[in-house]
Amino acid sequence: MNKNRIYPTYFVFGALLLYTVLFVLPSLTGLGYSFTDWSVYSDEIHFIGLENFATVFSSDYNYTRMLANTIRFTLVTTVVKNAVGLALAVLLTKKVKLLNFHRAVMYLPCVLSALIVGMIFKSVLNPKIGLLNTFLRRIGLGFLASNWLTDSKIAFRSVMAVDIWKGMGYIMTILIAGIMSIPQTYYEAASIDGGNAWQCFRHITLPLLVPTLTVTTVLNVIYGLKVFDMVYSLTNGGPGFATEVMYTGVYKEFGLGRYAVGTTLSTVMTLVMLVAGYFMIKHMVKGDGQEI
Amino acid sequence: MKKMLALALALMMLLGAAAVAHADEGVTITYMASQDWVQDAEMELAEKFTEQTGIKVDFQIIPSDQYTNLLNSKLNSGECPDLFGSQAGKTDIVTLLNVEKNAVDLSGEAWAATVDPLAAAETSVNGKLYGQPAQDVSAVWAIAYNKKVFEKLNLKVPTNYEEFKAVCEAIKADGMIPIYEAVADGWHHQLWFCELGVAIEHDEPGTADKLNSNAMKFADSATAKKLIEQIKEMVDLGYWGDNYMANEYADAARAIAEGECAMTVANQGFPTDLNAAYPEFPAEDIGFFVMPLCDNQVLNMNPVGPTRFIYSGSKNIDAAKQYLAFLAEPENIQYQIEKVGKFNTLPFTTAKDAYSDDISAFYAAYPEHGTVYQTAVNYVNPQWMEIGKFLVEVLQGDSTAEGMLKYIDLNRESQAKAAQDPAWN
Q1: A85-94, A220-229, B61-70 — which is least confidently predicted?
Q2: Beta strands in B91-167 (DSSP E)
Q3: What is the predicted ipTM?
Q4: Residues A148 and A132 sit within 8 Å (Cβ to Cβ)
């Protein structure tokens, strides 16, 4: 097959049309609506300039807190999932007994729906009758029993921990594939030169895993910025507003019929994702861009 | 030939009539409602309705903390079930539900004339009735207390906040949690604030009117601030126990029956429900008094309750109307009153009430009546769950009473402006 064959430009029209109709136009329409007073309360829609954006960024409301929570969730879960996923991947590419069983067990949580995981952990983390606190009390560590999902000081950490538990197996799987693609000869050469396990990890595994880690980071950042179902099912944004994220806010605004504010929140998130994407591409992709 | 033709026509008429009689068979109407809004008695009646008409009723019960958002999302996206439940309220059904667009006018139904006039006013817009009351609206949310505990500790029904605190202290000293408060559901704990709008009105007469005409804000009310501070004080003093955030209303009866707690905020059906679940606990052992925060002694009335509406976009409007007509038949209304513990009556002129002497005495003990603020003040009920969330922020020390009142004012302003309320535009 001739790899240099040039296809006519109009071949792209079909895909472009679908992309325009299903993505570009709704996005632009959403952007337009963020400058209006569109709501369930009135049939008329008026242009109101940047008023919705002023509302979203006003300290009087909770939207900035939702944005901060979303960013915090993204940063923490991305870093921890990558770190734990990497540790698991390194461990589970060694010669250990029941290797596939361990891999399957670690991967299992990510095949469950976030809503199901949320409902299970809502029960597990119940302060009175939950499995975790009951277990802690039984083993004499009752002082560690907490209001995991109902104390505003720790609820968000609990949500992030559950999400990390659910997502780390997925990251581990991608990183295992990355590690297994590293030629064994590098490790053999290092071994002959007297390199220990840490040096092999530091100077062979980690540098050669950077492209894979770039992929997992991008996936985690996108997932984190869009998080909704895990928060919704575990805490519904509570206690109070302690765990509200941007998309629980969008959902609530639409539910309350304040469509314009809802689309404004979506627009803000699109901008955040664009900025995050720009920096990730700028700093993670080098040379000919082969790392993504 | 003519005879044959006549016979054929008669046969066709009979077949046609039979077809009409069974036209609704196979129809299933969907009914979406919040948790606790559909009683077992209604489900039993629905089965009877199916036997009579062939129309099935599919109940979709949604957790209460998710219901308002889900209902509004479904209404706004045009994907609502045939019947939906919602709180009534003459302002809310316009601003929040837009019933003139989203619900079917039921004024022409035979049962419409039997709806209690006060309840009908809260489900009507421009003289047209859009909803059918689903629950007893005569009951009030008050403090249900275990009389035996009060007798044992020689306690009297408190008539002001200081006496109430003394009662709570005595119960706490005896090793019980004074109050079972269900915060986890998201809808219950704000009753302490919204129901006690009657105390605000008592201390600062005319506040509801001023709030509705935008001549005043909640943040301007010293009584409203004091209310929130006293709710927080109850929590700080441990009157709600340590696990109040995880408490669910469905567990309130158990907490009282097992002696874990001595009081809870409930309506007058609570003793019957408690006795049904725990037969060893007599219903007569539960007494009531009004929530005495801010020294309140006014009975908090609310003519608004969960109401059934038919979605205007439904393809089964006639079947849904038949169902509502069936539920409103006098014997079926009476069946619900008899079977549902928390119903002492239903807001229909055909209903015969079942008040016990105790409950009648409780109502009689508070001659001054007021309307709760989620009904008396516009744009409060639509933010019911948000008020609950903000109250939790206050209880956990993440915000203040002033912050909560300011937030309620902001939300009211936002809704009023969107609704193009003349008082705000």
Answers
A1: B61-70
A2: 124-125, 128-129, 131-133, 142-146
A3: 0.79
A4: yes
Is B327 contained in some domain? yes
Q: How far apart are CA B328 and CA B332, in angstroms?
A: 6
End-to-end Cα separation, chain B, in angstroms = 77
Tell me: the pLDDT tens digits for B112-158?
A: 999 998 889 889 999 999 999 999 988 899 999 999 999 999 999 99
Q: List the domain boundaries for chain A.
A: 36-284
Interface of A with B in 36-55 (CB under 8 A): 37, 39-42, 55
Question: CB contact, 8 Å: A127 with chain B?
Answer: yes
* B386 token code pair: 């948000």
Chain B residue with minimal CA distance to A252? B69
Would you give the end-to-end CA distance of chain A in angstroms? 26
Q: In chain B, what residues touch A66 (CB-CB under 8 Å)?
A: none
Beta carbons within 8 Å of B155's beta carbon, 6+ residues apart: B149, B167, B170, B171
Same domain, B120 and B146: no
C-alpha B222/C-alpha B80 separation (Å) is 42
Domain that holds residue B239: 142-301+369-418
Residue of A nearest to B74 (CA): A255
Q: For residues B111 and B306, is the Cβ–Cβ distance under 8 A?
A: no
For residue range B228-267, list pLDDT tens digits in order.
999 999 999 999 999 899 899 999 999 999 999 999 999 9
What is the count of structural domains for chain B? 2
CATH class for the domain made up of A36-284: mainly alpha
**Chain A residues closer than 8 Å to B65 by CB:** 236
